[in-house]
Specification:
elongated; mainly alpha
Length: 114
């Protein structure tokens, strides 16, 4: 979902390429299920794998199981993130409803001149 558009990608990854428990993900959880979020355990950590070629499990790159700045998370940012995702997905689905197949969009073939 976070790759649905460049805008959403930037919105979601602004503090870390690996987004596990970053500001955006923590904010979304505060908006959806605040009972599952323990903000007293939110610890900011650098995104140590941003320069890496390989993707690593969070336990191989984070001491406290998250990256970025989860301490800055809040419900309002989570609501805004979800609203932006819903708006973007809705626009893309509306476009998909009227999309033509690639061959339907080709110009008519030129008559054979030979």
């Amino acid at each position: 979902m976070w790759e649905i558009s460049p805008k959403i990608h930037e919105f979601y990854h602004h503090d870390a390429v690996n987004f596990h428990a970053n500001c955006a993900e923590t904010s979304v959880m505060l908006a959806l299920r605040p009972d599952l979020v323990q903000m007293n355990r939110a610890v900011d950590e650098p995104d140590r794998s941003a320069h890496c070629f390989f993707a690593y499990r969070v336990d191989k790159e984070s001491v406290h199981s998250g990256v970025g700045t989860p301490s800055q998370a809040d419900e309002a940012f989570g609501q805004a993130t979800l609203a932006a995702c819903i708006t973007e997905l809705s626009a893309q689905l509306q476009q998909a409803m009227i999309e033509k197949t690639p061959l339907e969009e080709l110009p008519p073939a030129l008559p054979d001149m030979f």
